[in-house]
């Protein structure tokens, strides 16, 4: 059917108006770099975005946002190594000249050169790895979702030294002195304490159901965010722990059982917490109760967040429909939208490279 000039003009004006509205809602949109190889000359200063991809599809990837010139680079690992990264990249840790990308469903950790992003080794023999954390120049720990243990890896040849049986899932880890504090996330309600010198589990701290993220503040206090369980078994909350005495100093409870808080982060100065709960919430460590109003609430269901330790800019990932490429929105510390850029499927975590 032919369209009249009047209808055509009306349609064009409608589309233009929609584009204008989208532009106003989303702020500046940063286009991806279109260079021949699409690999930056340097990875400093910048932000790595770990894109999980679809479970079982093996289409996970890593993106990079160059903070110096505001350019976005996608599919870094595949372009540098001429092969796919694997199934569900979960997290990444940078140690000097090396990067460690934990690929959960592939049961491996890719060790990459941080100058070229080329893989120099692959740590295998893992069940369902989640996080990688060096505790010295020679040893790193790897948490695991299904194995009921944490794994010790030698950093000179990337071989497994041993496993420490926990009998439960292990998730995020934080090193404090000679001890490692490990969240028992899936189906659990404990923080495990591992003696790094002895290489053994020495204590557990009971918390709320399913602790999913932890941070250490400027006062050396450990903050633990607990979702309350996948089936809302318990009221969610945030717990402050003294890691020296292992005592729970304060428990902040959310007001609704159906709340689903996640991705606890802290700013570079260690005095302000951020987390997701159908919006982005900001909470000073001196606060006496859970904040009632979000810092950012725009109707989006953010999947993950990260806080730039230098600028305080908030990076919020929108997985959209979990099938198409995701998007990252950047907000100023006071909550104003700065800009946004496209990444890959299900952006799940951020790593800041200074």
Characterize this entry briefly.
The chain has 354 residues and is mainly β. Helix content is 8%, strand content 45%. The strands form seven sheets. It has a five-stranded mixed sheet with strand order 1-27-26-25-24.
Secondary structure: number of strands: 28
Distance between the termini: 57 Å
Radius of gyration: 21 Å
Number of contiguous helices: 2
Strand order of the largest sheet: 1-27-26-25-24
Write down the secondary-structure element order.
HEEEEHEEEEEEEEEEEEEEEEEEEEEEEE
How much β-strand is present in the residues?
over 45%
The share of residues in helices is: under 10%
Shape field: globular
Largest sheet: 5 strands, mixed
Descriptive account of the structure:
The structure is a single chain. The chain is mainly β and 354 residues long. The chain has two helices and 28 strands. Strands 1-27-26-25-24 form a five-stranded mixed sheet. It has a four-stranded antiparallel sheet with strand order 4-3-2-28. It starts with a helix and ends with a strand. 39% of the residues are buried.
